[in-house]
Write a structure and sequence with these properties.
Chain B has helices spanning about 1-30, 35-60, 70-85, 90-110, 115-135, 150-155, 160-180, 180-190, 195-200, 205-230, 240-250, 265-285, 295-315; strands at about 140, 155, 160, 230-235. Chain B has about 325 residues and is mainly α. Chain B has a two-stranded antiparallel ribbon with strand order 1-4. A two-stranded antiparallel ribbon of chain B has the order 2-3. The two termini of chain C are about 15 Å apart. The chains are: A alpha/beta (about 525), B mainly alpha (about 325), C mainly alpha (about 325). Chain B: Pfam families: BPD_transp_2.
Chain lengths: ~525, ~325, ~325
Amino acid sequence: MPEPFDAFRIGFAMNTDSLLSMTGIDKRFAGIPALSGASFAVGRGEVHALIGQNGAGKSTLIKVLTGYYKRDAGEVVFDGKPFEVSSPQQAQASGISTIYQEINLVPYRSITENICLGREARRYGLLDWKRMHQEAEALLRRFNVRADVRRPLLEFNTATQQMVAIARAIGFSAKLVIMDEPTSSLDEREVAVLFNVIRQLKQEGVSVVFVSHKLDELYEVCDRVTIMRDGRTVKTAAMNEIDKIGLVSAMLGRAIERAEGHATAFSDRDEKKIGKVLLSAENLAINQIVQDVSFSVRSGEIAGFAGLLGAGRTETARLVFGIDRPRAGTMTFNGHNFNPHKPSDAIAAGMGFCTEDRKSEGIVPDMSVAENMMLALMPKLSKSGVIDEKAQRDIVERFIRQLGIKCSGPDQKVRELSGGNQQKVLLGRWLAMNPRLLILDEPTRGIDIGAKGEIQALIKTLADQGLAVLMISSELEEVIEGADRVFVLREGISVAEFDRDDATEDAVMSAMAHGSAPTIAEAAA
Amino acid sequence: MTRQRLISMLGSYGVVLALLLLVLFGWARYDYFLGFFNITSVLRYNSMFALVALGMCFVIMTGGIDLSVGSTAALGSVVAALASPQGALVGLGAGVGAGLCVGLINAILVTRLKIMPFVATLAMMLAASGTALLLADNQSVSVSYESGFTSIGQDNFLGFPIPAWIAIVAYVVGWIVLNFTSTGRGVLAVGGNEDATRLMGLPADRIKFLVYFASGGLAGLAGVILASQFGAGQPIEGVGWELFAIAAVVVGGTLLTGGVGSVGATLAGVLLLGILFNVLNFENGKGWISLSAYWQSVIRGLFLLVVVILQAKLSSRGSVAVRDY
Amino acid sequence: MTDTARQQRISRPFDPFDFMARYGTLIALALLILFNFAFTRNFATMQTLNVNLTQVCTIVIVAVGMTLVIATGGIDLSVGSLMAISGALAPMIFLGKIVPIDNVALAVAAAMIIAVGVAGLFGLFNGWLIARFRIQPIVATLVLFIAGRGIAQVLTNGNLQTFRVPQFQWIGLGRLFGIPVQVVLMVLLVIAAAWMLKRTVFGRQILAIGGNERAAELSGIAVSRVKLVVYTISGLCAGIAGLVVIAINSSSDANLVGMGMELDAIAAVAVGGTLLSGGKATIIGTLLGAMTIQLVRYTLLANGVPDAAALVVKAGIIVLAVWIQQHGRRA
């Protein structure tokens, strides 16, 4: 359980001149809490980091603040006054500008328009392009960006686009600028420029909320940090009072010295059942997200990918499954060179891939359980193109039983099922193919506790039967207790590999935070 | 980068270049091609299409489509003809008003009931056409010749056909709105990325509402010219106008997915397709070949084909003609 | 979303929109028939049935192909023009305008196969544009919507082709066991397509692509190939419908054959309950939808309402059907 904590008190204790304070914020979506009693305070001229796992509630908190969502409960005080806004437009007018994670600009329009849309300069009632161009140029110059502001945004690289987004936010003479992962698409030099701008803003008395998963950056530019987990703000601290391990453990909700015993349904596995290497990948690279990743998976083994958000785990899996093509690196599968061009190549070789995003890449919502489960196997189960209904029904019913899928029958629409049961249907889709390797990306995300344990036990059974499993999970205990080997990815590079016995929480967390096992000095600190 | 720019320049000015080449070709080959009579009759006739295409251009720039413009023009022509005995201006107002009514319903269906533009305007195409036939009792409605209504379509002003003047004014206004008002820039922003536009705090629904409303009004205006030019309200005219307009807009380099577009290039697109037909007529007149009038739709289709394939290739390469001011 | 919330939604109470989205068309059709029995004179006659069936036939044949296209999340605007092409080509062949063929049966067979085949090839061309260049279906098929009719007009030079060839006109005027041949043809097509959509791998793949193209691709489905085939089928259906129309009329006018057919077909599909965004399709629904629209028109005409007003009513029906569907899904 998180320790009792009052951001409001700490906020005033640290910064008597508070710009923003949010207390007791609740937000529910269709009855499910996304924020429960979250608190957040930012002082004037302060750079405040906001971190947390995927689904911890950072984005929701930001969207509540900017009026994109309406909060269900709680108070917001901004600039000394109660703050009630119902649209991003109003928030902008009140002095809060936001740079969203996915660059929310209009690619076909010019840089000038993207910076000035919504507060255009006018002359005789018509737009004054000359003045707007000058303004855009002047704003960009602060970031050392020189670009033809008349050209459409899409002609520029991502870093410039990011700078344009920031210029837009600052151009609104904001008192508070929210940056949601602004550095994810920037290289080192560009990050340095951005940090200069943040320091400049700070000097001008502008506050910045900085969301990032790159822990090093936080120490470089932030004054304080607030950590979120499960819709709550669990900790606020000055950056110089908390180390990286402290950040990671607060994010994951694990104390370093935690009690023995299992938190997941993975029980210990018999090492002898693990066979030969089935898939090995060397030095895979595609772009900044995947720079240099090497790993292998053996038959009957569960290999785990650990890492923070944006470490390149999903992107690596996509390379293996032929969705994207790597720029560099080699793969072998079953002893042969493996170079898939499209997913059906990987499927033909004997792979299955349960994607992280069940809704947009997994289920076909309007189809039945049976149809979803048979989607990949169907061609093999047909006689000259006609589906063998009986054989299909037998298989589906067997999997519904084996996987314990709760549904009214094979004909129920899959969108009516719970997340856990949808996941089991997708598992069934691949298991029906009798694959040799199964890639599971966040197999238990968004699934309630009971179904979670069932799926974990299932994965273990499958591995015991000789299936190779590559499991990506953001839940540390799932990787540590479930995987026979853990590969840690950090900023696109595979930085560490642990056997089951060495994969302790401190070791893995430390690799996620620092990129290597902790030194003695750090462990002592 | 230079190569990319070259391609995008070609995207911007390709249609203008093609238009110039076609005019040069016509001038070199046919005696009366650039004669006063030919020029004015081409402009007089195509001004109706130009108005419809202008409205379509704005709708498409928001990422939508308006399939009802042809029937709306037919309805406008009938209503204008029926009202024409009350005076030329009443006829004009009634025709435009009928168009605005159709536009209003389209706007409500799209922005309030959230029905796909394609379906909503398809339904309004049927409804407008049915209303026009009902009002006209299934036949042409002749206009009043006493009230001066016909001069809207048939007379000249400063030696230039009045319909052409109307189209020119409409395009100048359209150009100013697109390039020098925040609503105009909002149109392009909504089509480029509707979510981002909302997050930027622009009134996306109001912008969409306005373009459908305006498209209806312009189609109604085209109907007024139709009635006045041919002396009768024509309930069965306008079939296929929407597709001519879409083709002209696309040939003019406006992306059908929205977000990119130009008023000037749309006009060039209309003229290009219109003059193509004109050239075919001259060619047949020379008697060397006898290409029937039917070739025009084949050639229009081919034009459209080349343009959409080029657009697909350009946008997949991430370089699209954008600048228009 | 947690399990409990989901479960609650499963056992949700009666939802009028959902109910209407499911059974609205059927109910409307039943009400229309009852109304006509009560108020329309001479409704319960074979002749009325035949008139209505004949008029709805070509729409249904085209709408079957359209349903499949829409099921993948696409649209085909070119069907009317493809009807014109097939309708222009067939008489040219069996009248021997291209190559004289002495044997009438052979000439008619060649005419049918070639005309429908060419329409299918144009459909394939649509599919190629959509799959290869990723052009939006509405634009890609617009090309042939414009050019297709032009091609038909150029082929015939815009002239009316009249003919009296009973062997050919059998498909429009003949009868099998007392039932018009075209109705038999329509029923066969409907059954075949409904069966394919339900029972074959291909049908399943069509729905999967329309329901979630990413998921379909990740499950190893050859998305481009399926799209190519679907647009080809739509072209073939349009080709067949073109033959039926000219057979009934004993003449082929490239300017008129299939005019506005794309709208009628789309309307039938929408009213029939197929999602216009793809992923959920019912061929039987399309049949019912076409019959409903036809019967509304017939009812209005038979009771003295002008044809033009029927158009306005049709527009209302389309908007209502789509609105109910969207609402039913959102709830």
